[in-house]
Give the backbone structure.
Amino acid sequence: MARTAFDAFLAGHTVPEKALLPAVEPLAARVGSMDLKNMMSDPANWSANLAKTGRLLELSGLILGLDATLVAEAYGLTLEWENDLPTVLNAGQEILSQPATGGRLGCALDALDRLVQTQRPHYGCVAGMAGPAELAQMLFADNDGSRMAELKQSLVELAESFCKLRPDMLLFREGAALGNAAIGMQHRKAFNTLKNMAGYFNVPIAIYLEDYDSVVLPDLAKLKVPFVLLGADKEGRAPEIGVVRELASGIEGIGVPLPFDDIERAAELADGYREQLEGVNYLYTSMHELPRDTDLEKARQIKEIIGI
Amino acid sequence: MTTSNFSVGIDVGGTFTDFYCSDDASDSQTCKTPTTHYDLSIGFMRGIDMLARHNQLPVPDFLKQVGSIRYSTTVGTNALIERTGPKLGLITTAGFEDNIFIGRARSWADGLGWQEGRDQARIQKPEPLITPNMVVGVRERIDYAGKVVSPLQKAEVLAKLQGLVDKGAQGFVVSLLWSFVNPEHEQMIKQIIEEEYPEDYLGSMPVILSSDISPKSGEYTRTMTSIVNSYIHGIMADEMNKLGNELRDKGYKKPLTLVHNTGGTKKASRTRAVLTHNAGPVAGLHGSAFLGKLTGDENIVFTDMGGTSFDIGLIEGGEIKAHDFIPVIDRWRTNIPAIEVKSIGAGGGSIAWVNDLMGNALEVGPQSAGSMPGPVCYDQGGQEPTVSDADLVLGFYNPENYLGGEMLLDEEMAREAIEQKIAKPLGIDVMEAAYRIRRLVDARMGQEVFNEVALKGHDPRTFVVLACGGAGGAHACGIAPFIGSKKIIAPRQSSVFGAYGASLMQIKEVWDRSRSLKLFNYGSQSYLQDLESFNSVTRELKDLALRDLQLEGYDEGQIDFTLELNMRYGSQYNMTKVKSSALELSSVADAEALCDRFTRQYAKIYSPEATFPSGGINVESFSLTAAVRIKEQLPSALELADAEPEENALTGERPVYWDPESGFVDTPVYNYSQLLPGNQISGPAIIESIETTYVVAPGWLFTLDGFGNGIMEQTGD
C-alpha cells in the first residue's frame, strides 16, 4: 500500500493521503549499521538498507543516489569524507570528458537495479543524480549555467543508463546554482533534452531543490519539468506557501518540505499546506536529507502528525 | 452508453509503433508512439491508452469493446539481432555437423546490404546461433524415398544428449537428413529427450523438429528455419504472455492475433515464431491490395518510408504475387513461404555522414538514429544529422506540429548538427547540405524502387506509387520520377499503413511440403498416371489445415483453400510457382491441364521461346493456403466538393527551400483535416495532417479523392 499515494502523485490525482518522500540515505546507512561510504560501495546493502528505512518510516518512495558528489566523482573530482559525508576537493579542476561508470556510480546503478527489482511493488523507486546546473557548478565553478552545455551530452547518456533500469522517477538534485538565478535558455535546453530522453523510457523527471531563493521559484515552471520537490530554502526555512502555489500552477506536482527533527513545526507546516494547497497535487519531502543522527522516534511520529 | 466493436491493428517499426483503430461505423483513429525497444509492451500500451482517449473511454471500457487486436511485432527480430536467445543444442545426422557453418552458396553475405555484401575483403560470417561445440551427429540414415537405411541407436542418442545437457543446452533442435520424407527418426529422438527430461522436471527443455517446422528439402534452409524458430520461440512466448496478461488485466478478454509474413494472421498461441519476422511490411502490402480496389489501380508499387527503413512491395494485377521462398532472417536463409517485401536502410532517421575514404562523399544511411536517441531535432540526445533534420531545416516540417504537436522539434539543433557534421567538412552552406541529404535519400529510394519493378519484368511507368510511412508523404514527389510514374497515392492512413493493413488481414496460414512428382515424364513422354501420389499430398495438407483451423473455432465451410505448386522443367534448378485450379487431380487430363498452365506461366515470365515441355515437367513442392473467408466491405466514396479548398484549410505560408536555384520560396501550408473530397492544390504546397506531412512539389497537383486519399499527379516537369 505504501506506494499508492506516490502513484497517485505521479498520475496527477489529488488524493487526501499524501505521499511521504524524504531523502534518507545517510540515515539508511545507520539503519544498516554501517558508514555511508561503505554502504555506497556495496549495492546489496545500499538497496537493502533503503528498503529497511522505508519500512521503518513507512515511506511512499525511496530515493537512491541523491548525493550530487556521486556524479562529480565520476567526472574525476576527488572527494574528502568528513563525518561520513563527502565533499568535493578540487572543484574547477580538469575533468574527464566522459564520466567513469565504475566506482560509486557503478554501485549506484547496480543498487538501483536491485531496488527496482525487489522493492518496486512496495515503494516508488526514485533514481537521484546531480542536476546539470549543480554539476556545472561543482565541476567548473560555473554559477550561471554558462558551461552547462559542455556537460549536456555526457549527462544525458548517464541519465539514460539510470532510465534503462526503469525507476518510477528520475530526480535531479539542484542547489543554489539553479535556485538563485534566473532561468535561462541554457537551463531550459538541458532539462528539455533530459525530459525527452527520459520520456522515451516512460520515466518522469523531477528536480529536487535546496538552498534556493523563494522569489525565483515560480520561474522554475519555465523548465517544463513536470515535478519539483523542494527542500529548505537558502535560509533553511520552508518555502512561502504563496510561492509554492504559484509554482504548482505551472507544473504537474510539487514536493513540500517538513522538518523531521521538529514535530511541532512539522505539524504546523502540514496544517498550512493542507489548508492552502487544496486542489494542488503535492507530496511531502524533508528540509534536507535525513542525517545519520536523525531521531528515529521523532521521524516515525511525522506520519501520524501529518495525518497520513 | 453505446458500444462499438473496434478493430485494432498495431505495427511495430524501428522508430515508431503505429496504431489503427476502426469501428462498426467505419470511423477510424490513428496514432503513433515511439517504439520502446527496451520493452515493446510500453509503447504498445501507450498507444492503446491514446486510442482509448481518442474514443473518450477509459482503457478498460475501450478494451472491452475491442473485437480484435492484430499485431505485427519485432520481438523475435530484436532477439536475433541482439543475440539474446537461449543456448541451443543441435542434433543432426552424423557427418553433417558442419552443415550450418558451411552454409549454402554465398551464405556469408546473406542479410547484408549490397555494399557490405560486395566488400569481400572485410565480410565476416555471422556469429552462429548455435556454436560448433553444441552440435552433435547421431548415426542414422533415411534415404530419399523415406526408407530406413541405418536405424537410430538409442544409447548413442542418450550419450550425445547428456553431452549437450552438460554443456548447458536450454533447448534442442533436431534436423536429420530426409526427415521431410520420413520423420520417424526425428520423432524417436524427441521421444527419447522427453522420456529423459519429462515436463514435470525442472530440466524439461523444448524440442523442435525440422520435420514439424519446415518439412521441405534442402537441409541447410530446413535446419536454419528450425534453429531460428527455436532461438526466438521462448522470448516471443514470454513477451506474448506478458502482453496478453497486461491486456487481460485491463479488460481485453480475447486472444491476441499476430500478423504473419506469409500474409495472414493467427492467434499468438497458435503461431510459429519464425512466421512473425518482417510481418509489418507484409501487412502494409496487404493494405495496398485493398486500397487498390478502392482507387481502381491494379499495378501498385507499395513504398513505406518510416524512421529506420524503406520497404518496397508490388501489387500486380490487383494481387500480391511475389513470394520469397528462401527469405533471409537476420543473416540466415530459411525456407518459409514469405511474401516478398524488400527493405533498405533509408528513412527519416537515416544518418547522413561524410565518407572520407571515398573523397568526402556524402552518404545517407544505412545506420539509423532509431527512436533513441532519434534525430537531433527530437532533442533526446542524438548528435548525428538525419534525413528528418534536413527536412526540418529545409522547411518541409513544422517544428510545432510534429505528431500533432506531441513532439516539439528543435530546428536550431538540427541546423547546428548539419553544419558541423556535413556542411563544414564539405565546404558548403547548411541549406545546400540539407538539400543534398534530401536529394540523396530520394535518389537511393527511387533507384531501389525502379530496380524492384523493372527487374521483375514490369514497365515501371504502368505502376502508381503508394507513398506510406511517416516520411512517405514528404518524399513521394522525389521518388516517383525515378520510375517515371506520374501518379502517387498518399493514403489517408499513410503514416500508419502497416497497422491499417494488419487490421484488414484475415486468419490464414500456409502449409507446405516437398514431394517430387513427374507430372510429365521425360522418358516415357506421358502424363502422371498415379494421381493418388499427387492427391495424397494435398489431402494430407488439407487435413493438417482443417485440424488447425478447427482448433481456432472455424469449420470447413468458412475456409477457402488455394493450392500452389513449385514446378520446373526436367532438371532445371529454378522453380516457377503455379496456382492449381483444383486441390486434387481427378483425371490424367487434369495433370495435362496443369502442365499447360505451367508452360503458359513460364512463357509469360521467360518468353515462349524458353519453354521446353518435352524435357519433362516436375512438381517439387506443394503449398496449401487456408484462409478464413471474411466479408470484405468496401467503403463508399464521399461526394466530391469544389476543386478550390475552403478558406479555413489554408493555415498560412512558410519559407521552404525547394532547390538551390530558387532558394527559399514562401509556400502555402494547408491543414489536411480541413480539406474536402475533390479539393485540389497545386504545388508547391505543404499539407499537414496530425501524423504526417504531404509535400506537393512544384509541377504536381494534389487532389483529395472520395476516400480521403491524397492523389498527386505530375502536371509539369
